[in-house]
Amino acid sequence: MTSISYNTIFAKPCEFVMGGADLESLPPTELNEIAFAGRSNVGKSSLVNALTGRRTLAKASNTPGRTRQINFFNLASVLMLVDLPGYGYAKAPKKEVAAWTKLVKDYLSGRPNLRRVCLLIDSRHGIKEVDREIMSMLDKTAVNYQIVLTKTDKIKPTALKEITEAAYLIIKKHPAAHPQIIATSSESKEGIELLREQLAEFAVV
């Protein structure tokens, strides 16, 4: 795609469709889907907003109740962006956290039109054991995923380089991992244009 086409796609209307609390309540699999997964507070909603050039598009995921659901955003009827509940630590009862984590895993392993998972990793902390568990699951189900480092504006360049190099060593052992890691910041917009370019390849236009 040319730079004009992918920027045009992400500049088009993007609307919240619905939130689903289980696989049976999810919308029909009519569009290719890009899912955003990661630990709690890694910046999934902020990244969705940055990609679409909006400030509050994904704020529904911060509304009580909806944080427990899989949130779907229709991008100009050419691509579906999917904001997943954070896995791992969350300020909620363990039973609820376990239910959200199961929902995420069920979606990631059983959605037929899921084309790529953007696996968000906080650049200040790197890939953790809970992330490796998701990566191994995606390897087993042959779901393509790409490591996207977030919050790079909050880390020094030397530290970011070390985290990135360590992540590259890890993904070499994971067959379903995309070979390129993208470092992003929803604040400074670092890496946003590059991520748009790659994700636009999955749009049905």
Question: What topology emerges from the helices and strands here?
Answer:
Blueprint: H1 3-11, E1 14-20, E2 33-38, H2 44-52, E3 70-75, E4 79-83, H3 94-110, E5 114-122, H4 129-140, E6 145-150, H5 157-171, E7 182-183, H6 192-199
Parallel strand pairs: 2-4, 2-5, 5-6, 6-7
Antiparallel strand pairs: 1-3, 3-4
Model description:
The chain is an alpha/beta fold. The protein has one domain (3-202): 3-Layer(aba) Sandwich (Rossmann fold). It is 34% helix and 20% strand. The protein has six helices and seven strands. It has helices spanning 3-11, 44-52, 94-110, 129-140, 157-171, 192-199, and strands at residues 14-20, 33-38, 70-75, 79-83, 114-122, 145-150, 182-183. A seven-stranded mixed sheet has the order 1-3-4-2-5-6-7, sandwiched between helices. A hairpin with a 3-residue loop joins strand 3 and strand 4. Helix 1 packs across helix 6 (192-199). The model is unreliable at 60-66 (pLDDT under 50).
Summarize the structure.
This protein is an alpha/beta fold and 205 residues long. The protein is built from six helices and seven strands. Strand 6, helix 5 and strand 7 (182-183) form a beta-alpha-beta unit.
